[in-house]
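S1.2 Input.
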Amino acid sequence: MFQGTITLNEDFEAEVSCGRLRKAMKGLGTDFPAITREVTACQNLQRQAVREAYATHGRDLLKDLQEELAGTYSDTILALFAAPYDLLVAALHHAFTRMGTNEKMVIDILCCRTSEEIESLKQHYKKRYNESLDEQLESELSGDFRILMRSLVASERDQNQTVDPAKAKADAQALYDAGVGTHTEEDTEDFITVFKSRSFPQLGEILEQYQRLAGRPIQDAIKEEFNGDMQIGLLAIVQRVRDPLGFYAERVNQTLAGPGTDDKALIRILVSRSEIDLEGIKERYKELYGRELSDDVKDDTRGEYQKLLLAIIN
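S1.3 Output.
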């Protein structure tokens, strides 16, 4: 069973936490360690209670934090106070509104969600930006990749977690046939139909059946049949099915690899998984890269921002 690094604080008292945060921001200088300690000592639902308690004193906690803090430290604190889906829809909106769409961010957020999660994303996106997520995908993306992403947000993925081996075998055969010979539009439709609508457990069985049938993993066929963002999207779904912890471990590693750090993605992943499966992601990271996630974060970040990320991780 996957577990988060930030668990419910049994000793939590919203009014007490509220007072500590106010004290950390009053007077000369900011008590960063106190803010880090207070915010990472409780779960998101409890942080929302702190915001409400703070408001009873006639002040807006997020506004005070924004005025007191800056840079990536501020970004991370505000992300911790954001409702879970608000964090994801803000990332999606940023992916669409920057100069050139960030297709990688769209893939990372949409390709690993259940239908229920997609529905929540759509509702929160509409509520926050008064825009349809599907219409944004229609206007910002193109080609087969647009068809795949719009198919995913249509929320057609089966939520029945029971695996049907006979149906999986039929789907595996259809995918195998689609990967043989000249690639056609119908072949693309076959891949999209299976990848958008089968439950993740069912997809796992399909991938196993495909490998037995074809004598090779489906990733090889995807790399031969597709290219660009379409290929990356399909491969992301495969990885989400076969190795969900590895999916996130790899993406965290990508934020740290090479010159510079993709702070926005790093913050989003660590915060959004902190109450779900970050303990498992840490273990998988060590298996894949032979290093502790905390050590790599320590090497790539500095100051109070570094200490805050390590508090989330540990």
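S1.4 Remarks. The chain has a mean pLDDT of 95.
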